[in-house]
Specification:
- This protein is α/β, with parallel strands linked by helices and 250 residues long.
- The protein has a single domain, classed as TIM Barrel, CATH 3.20.20.
- 43% of the residues lie in helices and 16% in strands.
- The protein has eleven helices and eight strands.
- α6 links the parallel β5 and β6.
- α2 (25-34) packs parallel to α3, α6 runs parallel beside α8 (177-193) and α10 (225-234) crosses α11 (236-248).
- The radius of gyration is 17 Å and the shape is globular.
Length: 250
């Protein structure tokens, strides 16, 4: 079954709206783990709008000893240090997650909304991938379902890609859905043929997840925003069970 990794950014966003540490990011990570998730994801940004470097370190201490749960750190490797944010590579070196997902976002973006364009000037990324792999960290690139780009991701030495599923979620319920889904299916098939593992994430939810997870090559989904909204209504344990059930039906 496709692994479920819960992104805790929105828990941190709620925490940051008041002084103190309530709600606790690590306590909610533990709650997710207790109810069966296979991964914890965070996406620290230089502006620290939600996940902070201290959260990453505390979560690493929690998750790293657990053989059945993976820790995934997302971020832009080219973003410079800012205050107590040391930069993505420094943070990964300090915490040694199971996986680092490289994302081409900027502080001006509300959320990640596109994959890497590897058609030009990808040499710095190749060096970064090599550095991360030398640390023993699996490297995934946030990508569009573009065959040429996926071939390039393999050439750069990535271990996996994470397919950006925003357009798939936007197409849900429309005549465009099958066309968009087919692009993702073909991209996943190509990636697997090149030796790349396939992850996916962005705007997947309880309505559209099972259909997407019918892609046989899909190893992991990372879900945060929709999961947090559902947890408000269902409670976090029930939300975890609902997402695991959706994946089991695929």
């Amino acid at each position: 079954m496709t692994a479920l990794s819960i992104n805790l950014n929105k828990i941190a966003l709620l925490r940051n709206s008041r002084p103190g540490n309530y709600p606790s990011v690590t306590a909610h990570a533990q709650l997710c783990i207790d109810h069966g998730v296979q991964g914890i994801t965070v996406h620290p940004r230089p502006d620290q709008r939600h996940i902070r470097p201290s959260d990453v370190r505390e979560l690493a201490d929690l998750v790293t000893p657990l053989e059945q749960v993976e820790f995934n750190i997302e971020g832009n490797p080219l973003a410079p240090p800012n205050g107590s944010y040391p930069g993505l590579l420094a943070l990964v070196e300090q915490t040694t997650p199971d996986q680092c997902t490289l994302v081409p976002d900027s502080d001006s973006q509300l959320t990640s909304d596109h994959g890497f364009d590897l058609s030009s000037n990808s040499d710095p990324l190749a060096s970064i991938i090599a550095q991360l792999k030398a640390m023993g960290v699996r490297v995934s690139l946030f990508m569009e379902p573009d065959p040429k780009q996926i071939v390039r991701a393999a050439e750069l030495g990535a271990d996996r890609i994470e397919l950006y599923t925003g357009p798939y979620a936007e197409a849900w319920g429309s005549e465009r859905l099958q066309t968009v889904f087919q692009r993702h299916l073909e991209a996943a098939t190509l990636a697997a043929s090149l030796g790349l593992g396939v992850n996916a994430g962005h705007d997947l939810n309880l309505i559209n997840l099972a259909h997407y997870a019918s892609i046989n090559q899909l190893l992991e989904v990372s879900i945060g925003h929709a999961f947090t909204v559902d947890a408000l209504q269902l409670g976090m344990p029930s939300a975890v069970r609902a997402y695991l059930d959706a994946l089991s039906r695929s």
